[in-house]
C-alpha cells in the first residue's frame, strides 16, 4: 500500500520521505526548512515532542499567534489523519484554524504520516469521512494531493500558485494509528 | 432587434475566425485533453460512473424541495445562515447588503461561475465594494475586463504575452512573458488581498444535504485561503449542486476532475461545514442558494436533464464549433453545448437565440458528458421553441410547409432544378463555381450537381438477380442519395443482391424531415414522418436499410418521438424504428459479416471518416472498418477520425458556412496526413462536404461511400 501511495504522490509532484526514526525526521526538517516552521497542535507532532526537538536542532518554530506569524513562515508541519493510495492523497482534518494556516500559507508543507494509515481508495475512505463528520459539529476537511498547481496560462502546468509549492510527506511508522487524529 | 442581434453575432464570428492563434490554442488543448482524459479513466467504467451521477442527480431534481430543506436544516444547525435567492437580483442584493452592514471594503473571491452568472462583481463595485478575483484565470480576465471563455479555464483564449502586459500594468514594471514568473507575480500580488479582505466569496461544486456542508474541488489553493482568512465566508451555490449523501458527493469527485482536466483528483478537495473557527472566534458563514431559472429548468419536460450538469466543461473541450470560434462567440456566460441550454433558462431565450443555431449537431459532447445529458436533443428542442417564437425564416418556412410536405411537388421541383443548373454544371457532376451572390458557396468546396435522373426514376430499370432471397429489404435513400448520388443506390443493389438480399424502393418515401426539424419546424417534420412510416411499412419489408446516418436517426429516433402522441402512428413508428438498420451494420449482422464480399490483395490504402450520426447516433463504427479491411484494403486511421467534417446540412450552406469551412479544413488536413489514397465514409452529406473540400483544394485523395468501395470488389475477387 505504501508503495502505491508513494508512486501516486510522486506522479502529482509530491515528495515522499522515509523517516525511520524521529531523529531522522528532525534532521530532514532542519535541513529542508530554510526559515520559520509553523507547528499547529496536531497529536502526532505533540507525541514526538517535535517543537522541542526542532528548536534544539536550531529550527525557528512558530507554535502560537498563528495568524500573525504564518504569513511570513517558510514551511508548515502538520500530521495526517490518513492517506489514499490510489490518488496519492493525504486527508487532513483541519477544522482547527492553525492547521489550515500551516498548510495553506507557507511555500512548503511537511506532512507527517504513519504508513499504517494508508487506505486503498476513495471507497474505503468514505466511512472514515463519515466518522469525521459524526465527531464534529463544524468541519473543515482537506483532501490534499500534491502541491498547489495551475494551468491557467496557455494550459502549461505550473506548480505553486497560491498554496504550497512543495509537499513533503514524511513517512514514519509508529507515530499514530488513529485515523481520527492528525 | 433580432436582425441587429444577428449582425453583432456574425461580427463576433468573423473576429474569432480572423484569429488563427485562437484556433491553434484550442486545437492543441483539445488534442491534449483527449489523451489525458483517456488516461484518467483507464481502468474505470465511464458508462457506469455516468449512469450513477445521472440517477443521483435526477433523484435530487425530482425531490429538490426535501433535499433543500434537509440541507438548510443541517447547515443552520452547524451555524451557517442559509438564504434561498430566487433570482440573480435577490442573490446580489443579499450579498451586497451583507457587505455594507459589515463595513466590508474588499472581497476576495475564488472561482464561481454562479457569481459570473449573476454579475456579482458588478453589483459589488456599484456598492463601492472592491471584488478581487484570486483564481489565476479569473484574475487575468478581470484585469482584461473580459468574461470567461471556458468554465474551467477562463483565460484559455489568451497567450502569455497578453498576460504579461496585463500584469505589468499592475506591478508598474515590465514583467517578462514567462509562465512560471507570471504565476509567481500572481502569487505575490494576490497574497495581501486574502489578509486584508473582510469577506471571502466562493462557489461550491457540491452541497451535501445530509451534512449541510459544501465541497470545493480546486487546484490552485486560493479557495482554501478565501474560505479561511476573511472573517466572513459567503458561498454562492446553485441549487443543482445538491447531492443527498457523502457517498453521492464522492461520485462527483470521482468523475469531475477526470472529465474536466484529465486529473485523477484535483490538488484540493475541501469539505466545509458550518461556522468553523476563525481567529479568536467563529467564521460567519452565509450560504446563498441560487435558483435563478433552475426550478423552471427542473420543470421542463424536454430540458430538465440539463440540471444534471456538474460543470466539467468537457462539452466545450470536444466541440468542433468551440474549437473554431471559442467561448466568447459560442457562449453567453456559460459556454458551449450546456451553455446554450443554461443561457436559455438563466439569462433568457433571447440571449441563447443565436447560440441555439450555432450547434452543428455532431453529438461529440453527448459522448463525453459525465451526466449522460443528451445535449443535442435539448438544443434541438430549444430550436423548435425558437422557431415557434421567431419563425424559422420566411424562405425556409415556404419550402418546409408548402413544398416538402407535398412530395410530388417537392420532387418535381428538384427534377426541374437539375435542368436549371445546366448553365453552371456544363453537364459535369461537380459545380466548382457559382455565379453572383451564390459564389461564396463554392469558394471553399465544390458542390455536386443534382443528378439528371434521380434514383427513384432509375429504379424500375435496375435489374435484380436474387434467387430465393434471404431477406426482402426496403431502401430508404434520403434526398442526397436519391437526387445527388443515385449511383450509390446501384451500388447498394449490387452488393445486397450479391449477398442474397432483394431490395425495394418505396416510391412514396419523402425527405426524412431532419432539415425541417433541425430548423425548428416540428410540424412539417411530423407530417413527413407520417408519410415515410406509411411508405416504408407498406410492403412489409424484413428490414429498412439506409445509407445516410442522419436519416437513420430520423427513422430510429425522431419519428418515434414525433409520433408518440398520435394513436394512429405511434406503434407503426416503433415498428419502423425496430427494423431500420444502417447498411454496414446490416451486412455485418444479418449477412454473415459480409464474408461473400471478402477480397484479396491490398490494392488501396483507405482511411475511414466516422460520420457523427453513425458513430454517436447509431453506434456504428466498427462495422464499416471491418468490411473495408475484409474487402482487401489497407486501413489506416487518421487523427480525429470521429471529428465532424463540418457538413451539418444547412449549417454549412446557410447558417454557419464560415465555421463549417474551418472544420472541413481540419478534416482535409487529417485525411492528407494519414497518407491514404482514399477516404471512406457512410454518409452522403459527409461525402458532399469532404469530396468538395478535397476537390477544391486539388488533393488527389478520393472520397467514397463504403457501399461504393464494396461494390467495386464484386466480380474482382
The tally of beta strands of chain A, per DSSP, is: 12
**Poorly predicted sequence stretches spanning 5 or more consecutive residues of chain B:** none
Beginning-to-end CA distance, first to last residue of chain B: 64 Å
Q: Strand order across the biggest sheet of chain B? A: 1-12-7-4-2-3
Biggest sheet statistics of chain B:
6 strands, parallel
The CATH superfamily title of chain A = NagB/RpiA/CoA transferase-like
Task: Please state how the strands of the largest beta sheet of chain A are arranged side by side.
Answer: 1-12-7-4-2-3
Which CATH class of chain A is shown?
Answer: Alpha Beta
Residue share in helix of chain A: 25-40%
Number of helices of chain B: 36
Number of strands of chain B: 22
Commentary on this structure:
- The complex is a heterodimer of chains A (182) and B (717).
- Chain A has 182 residues and is of the alpha/beta class.
- Chain A has one domain (2-171): Rossmann fold (3-Layer(aba) Sandwich).
- Helix content of chain A is 32%, strand content 25%.
- A six-stranded parallel β-sheet of chain A has the order 1-12-7-4-2-3.
- Chain A starts with a helix and ends in an 11-residue tail after the last strand.
- The mean pLDDT of chain A is 96.
- In chain B, a hairpin with a 4-residue loop joins β5 and β6.
- The radius of gyration of chain B is 28 Å and the shape is elongated.
- At the A-B interface, α6, α7, β9 and β10 of A face α2, α8, α10, α11 and α12 of B.
- β9 (139-144) of chain A pairs antiparallel with β9 of chain B.
